[in-house]
Amino acid sequence: MKIKTITCHDVYNVGASLQAYALVTYLRKLGHDAQIIDYKPDYLSNHYPLWGLGNPAYDKPILRELYNLAKLPGRLKARNGKRKAEYDRFTAEFLPLTPRRYTSNDDLKQNPPEADVYFAGSDQIWNCFFPNGKDPAFYLDFAPAGSVRASYAASFAMDDIPEEWKPDVKRRLSGLDHISVRESSGVAIVERLGIPGAVQVMDPVFLLDSEAWASIEKPVPNTEPYVLLYDFDRNPEMVRFARRMAEENGWKLYSVLSCKECDRCFEQDGPLTFLNLVHHAQFVVSNSFHATAFSLIFRKQFVVFNRQEHINTRMRDLLYGLGLRDCLTDSAGRDCPRIDYPQILEKLDEQVGASKAYIENVLSY
Fold it and tell me: Contact, 149 vs 143, CB < 8 A?
C-alpha cells in the first residue's frame, strides 16, 4: 500500500525530526511503501536567514542595514555550522522524502503525490498560533477523491482554539476519514466542534522501541556519569535543580542547549546525539516534550518543569495519562519521586497498543 505522511519534518528541531522519522519508519516496518511529503512552504523554509530583523526597534532606514551587517558574520557561521549540517544529514539519511518538493497547498493540489492513504501528523501541525495550523495542506485538503485521509497524533497544542478559527478548522477536519490527536484536550476540541469519533493516540516516537532508537543514535565520546538538562526557557529553577542533583550524586551536568553553568553543552549537535544523551543519562531534567518521551522510552528517572505557555497541554497529558503527575514541577526545592517503571510500563504498553490499533484500522479500509 502506498502511504504519504505530511508533517513539519525539516525545521531544525529535534522532536520534529524524530517524530517524522518514527511514523514513516513504523509504517515501513508494517510492509508499506511509505514516504514523507517534502512540504516546504515559505514559512517553514527560512531557518538560517542571512538578512532580516529579529528586533523591530531596528526597523528604520540606515539602522536596519547597520543591524543586518552587524549580524551577518554570526548568521554566516550558523548557516555553515555543525548544527545545521547535523540536521541536514539526518534528513538526507533517515527521512524518505518524495522526489518532488512542494511549496504550497495549491502546488500539492495541482500535482498530488500518489498514495492510497494520507496521514497528517504528528506534532503541532494544527497549532493555530503558527502558520501551519492555518494551512489547508496539514488538513490533507490536497488529497485526491477516493483516497483515505487520516491524522495521526496531530496536536492543537492548547486547550482550545481561537473563536475566529473554529469555523475553518471544523470545515477542514470534516474532510478527514479518521481523526486521532495527541492530547485529550485535542479530543475535546474536536468534539466541541461537533465532529464525532476523534481518538487520542501516543506520539509516534512511542511506535518504535528502545532498541530501534538505540540502533541509530550517535555515541558521545568521553562521557562521565551525568544529569542531562534540556531547558527551552532558560529557567534558573531548572538549572538549580539539575546542579543540585548532579552535585549530590557526584555526576556531571550536561545540557542539550547552551548553558554556562553546565560542564558540557551540545547545542551544535543533532537528533542522533540527542538520542544518545538521553539514553545514557543518569537523570533527565527538562521542559521538553520529546526529552520526556525519550526518557520514558529509555526508562530514565526524570523530572519535568512546567512551561508557562500555550503548549503545556501536551506535557500534562502525557504525564497524567501515565500516573506521573508528581514528575511535573515548578520548584527546584521539591523532592524528586522515583519512577516505578514496572507499574508505568503496563499503562504505556496499553496506550501504545491502542495507537497501533488505530493505524491498523485506518489501513484496513
Answer: yes
Three-state secondary structure string covering 323-354: CCHHHEECCCCCCCCCCCHHHHHHHHHHHHHH
Q: Is residue 31 exposed (0-12), middle (13-18) or buried (19+ Cβ within 10 Å)?
A: exposed
With CA atoms as reference, report the closest residue to 227 among 258, 264, 272, 273: 264
**pTM, full prediction:** 0.89
Whose CA is closest to 4, among 179, 152, 153? Answer: 152
Q: Which residues contact 33 (CB under 8 A, 6 or more apart)?
A: 1, 2, 3
**Per-residue pLDDT tens over the stretch 143-196:** 999 999 999 999 998 889 899 999 999 999 999 999 999 989 899 999 999 999
The domain locations on the chain are 2-46+83-208, 210-348
Equal fold, 2-46+83-208 vs 210-348? yes
Q: Cα–Cα distances in Å, from 283 out to 93, 107, 252, 275, 328?
A: 30, 46, 11, 14, 15
Domain boundaries 2-46+83-208, CATH class? alpha beta
Q: Which fold has domain 210-348?
A: Rossmann fold (3.40.50)
